[in-house]
Amino acid sequence: MQRRNFLQTLPAAAFAAAAPPRHNVLLLLSDEHNPFFSQPYGHSFVSTPNMAKLARRGTVFQNAYCPSPLCLPSRSSFLSGRRVFDLQTYGNCNVFQVDTPSYGKVLSEQGVHSVHIGKTDVYNQASTLGFSEMIAPGDRARPGDTLISRVPLDIQKDGEGRGAGFGVKANPFAGDLRKVDLAVEWLSQKASTVDKPWTLSVNLLKPHFPHNVTADLWAQYASHADLPRYGLDSAAAKHPYAEDLRKFFGSDYSEETIRNLRRGYYGCITFVDEQLGRLLDALEKSGQASNTVVVYTSDHGEMLGKFGLWWKRSLYEDSVRIPMIAVGPGFQAGQRVHTPVDLHDLRASMFEATGAKQPAGWIGQSLQSIPKNEEGRAVFSEFQGGGTRASAFLIRQGRWKLIYNCAAPHQLFDLEKDPDELNNLAASQPKTVQRLEAELRRICSPEEENRRAEEFTQRQLRALGR
Fold first, then answer.
1. H or E element: which one contains 73?
2. What residue segments make up the domains of the chain, in order of their start?
3. Three-class secondary structure assignment of 334-372
4. CA distances from 440 to 142, 402, 414 (A)
5. Please, which residues have CB within 8 angstroms of residue 176's CB and are 6 or more apart in sequence?
6. I want to staple 119 with a disulfide (CB 3.0 to 4.6 A). Which of 103, 203, 260, 444 is the partner?
7. Cross-strand pairs, 414
8. Which residues face 116 on adjacent strands?
9. What single-letter DSSP state applies at residue 465?
10. Distance (Å, rounded) from C-alpha 305 to C-alpha 320?
11. pLDDT tops 50 at residue 6
């Protein structure tokens, strides 16, 4: 029988079997979660049993980074497949909008049902993003953050108010609980009826400040109102960019305030973990669990008083690192991957899981295909918004991390020997600095991007009437 005739005799199912399997994706994206404060990343007392369950059942990415340690830049980059410097979404000011497709629109156009619930806070309004379903979105009101001048340095006016953001409060999680309610409803009523692969991204505001919690969570961490191990006497705290950030935030807090802010943060993390548990239960009840990739991550970290720094905007590890735990088809149970990865790799994984193709030029390699220990792979992050005097860029490759500061001394850390970034080796390791700087320059020219960022910031300031 000729091959053509033979193929005509095969049932259609034979061709379907040859196609790669297409899976669903459930993503929980929190806001401002420093991964070092969770059980899978080795914390001794912050309770995150559902994250620990994911870690046992799936893969923990030990060295995951955000594209930029601030909400709008990081989320914009993740949704669009583009670098922050390419989008020019340097900070939380959104006086100008960007017209570029989101991953939700691209997936939808390729036969994937894309759903987004909760916070958007990206380069354009939620209504323009093109997801199959956009449920209870949270856009940042325009013009967003207007404190964007780098020279002279703008100063936040709410440092004292932020410092008071801890303790018991009535209904502190109402907004996030509503978002998870909507996600549970979608999983229970719609997940099994969609006749194509789906992605469901659930976006929470916690553990982002303020660190107000319920009475039970406040009580849970009563004996853990601790202080950061490393404070203002560390060399990293005396770097000019760190001094800029402390001035910008006005965060010279008392010991009692520091302890209480940290205590509240621990409770907020446990709350997020509880919501992860609710989503896992709802997925299991939907009958879709075996065919669904589940990922927990965050948009950036939180300094939580280390080096006298709070919140984000720093390229130190506590601010720029994120949790990333994945379970389901394509991810091995109980595995830990040490190769550096980022949110672009997560988005590429969503395309791979659903059988879709990322557009040409989009950044990222799927997490499913990244080796456990690849010394040569480099990841990049940047911060070019308000809070510091000029731009900064990060390259992490193997054990080494370079922070290239455009208006201050560069910093080189051996994270294997010095995970807390206490010893800047830039002066004693010039060849390593040169090698990592070459990796950086393959991505961008730091001088040119610093210039472009300053020009764009001046355009924004003029548009704001400043």
1. helix 71-80
2. 24-372
3. CEEECCCEEHHHHHHHHHHHHCCCCCCCCCCCCHHHCCC
4. 33, 9, 17
5. 118, 204, 205, 206, 271, 272, 275
6. 203
7. 400
8. 134, 201
9. T
10. 15
11. no
141 DSSP assignment: P
SS3 89: coil
Q: Hunting for tokens 């990081």 — which residue is that?
A: 74
pLDDT digits (tens, 9 = 90+) for 156-166: 988 888 999 99
Q: d(Cα 255, Cα 61) in Å, to the nearest integer?
A: 34
pLDDT of residue 312: 98
**pLDDT at position 8 over 60:** no
Token pair recorded at residue 115: 């759903």
Pairing mode, strands 292-298 and 324-327: antiparallel
Whole-number Å distance between alpha carbons of 412 and 167: 38
Contacts of 111 (CB under 8 A, 6+ apart): 196, 197, 356
Tokens of 307: 């080096």
456, 466, 462: which is closest to 73 by C-alpha? 456
- What percent of the chain is modeled with pLDDT above 90? 94
Tell me: domain 24-372, CATH 3.20.110.10, correct?
Answer: no
21: preceding bond cis by omega (within 30 degrees) = no
Question: pTM value?
Answer: 0.95
The answer to whether 394 touches 380, Cβ cutoff 8 Å, is: yes
- Closest C-alpha to 269, from 204, 176, 207, 178: 207
For 97-107, what is the mean pLDDT? 98
Q: Find residue 31's DSSP bridge partners.
A: 207
Residue 462: which H helix or E strand, with range? helix 446-463
Residues, the chain, total? 466
User: DSSP letter at 44?
Assistant: S
Contacts of 437 (CB under 8 A, 6+ apart): 395, 402, 404
